[in-house]
Amino acid sequence: MSGRMSGRLTGIGVGPGPAGYLPLAAIAALRSADLIYIPRARGADLSVALQCLDGVEFDRSRLCEIEFNMDPDRQVLQEHYAQLGQQLAAQLRQGLQVVYLTIGDALTYSTYGYVLAAVRDLYPGCDCVTFPGITSYAAAAAALEWPLGVGKERTLILPCPDDAASLRAEIESHDIVVLMKVGARLPWVLALLREMGIAQHCGFARRIGLEGEVLASDLTALDAADASGYLAVLLIRKTAQAQRHRAPQESSKGTA
């Protein structure tokens, strides 16, 4: 273990996607860490974050796997983060270099945000650094070659609403909607996109670069039963992407 007087908490987003989606600075921090916290979803056999680090060389004996609690009860969640924050704060006071891994970007709809807040509350003077990572929607856009915004298009990043009317209103008031945390809502979301006549402009990605990957750049025929699950993101475009490299159609000349 490190003999340094000052500990540091480093937040690192890994993946989502093929091995290698990791900044060089984050790799250096990973290799110099005394402890590496790696979350695993309750009920999962393997940590997805660890799968995203396949091929990256670092000391795996320093891994500290924690079962992640997504209980809907706010009191249970509060106790979970308070306990984890106390554990991390104590280790940082000992001068340890602690890394916390998460999927995607560490501060974009990530549980690391709660962890960081808990640690700073319990240990105000702690040294913390967070490396920006690749968001799920950036990885999805790259995998699908799907522009997230061009020109003056307005893009909204949105956790999926609980009802179709709310989602329809958001789609109608924006050019592009990035829909996260879709989960079991996928069947009615797909039905809404088809009803609005825009499914052919939309993209979907799940488990990018991992076993069970689903990629679709046209959602007209996407089967919700085959695509539903964790680590999914939906890219919604209200109209067809502008083809600015093409000359105007001859038929449009001279029209009012």
From TrEMBL:
Transmembrane segments: none annotated. Pfam families: TP_methylase. Gene3D superfamilies: Cobalt-precorrin-4 Transmethylase, Domain 1 (3.40.1010.10), Methyltransferase, Cobalt-precorrin-4 Transmethylase, Domain 2 (3.30.950.10). It is an enzyme of class 2 (transferase). InterPro entries: 4pyrrol_Mease, 4pyrrol_Methylase_sf, 4pyrrole_Mease_sub1, 4pyrrole_Mease_sub2, CobI/CbiL, CobI/CbiL/CobIJ_dom. Keywords: Cobalamin biosynthesis, Methyltransferase, S-adenosyl-L-methionine, Transferase. This is Precorrin-2 C(20)-methyltransferase. It comes from Herbaspirillum seropedicae (strain SmR1).
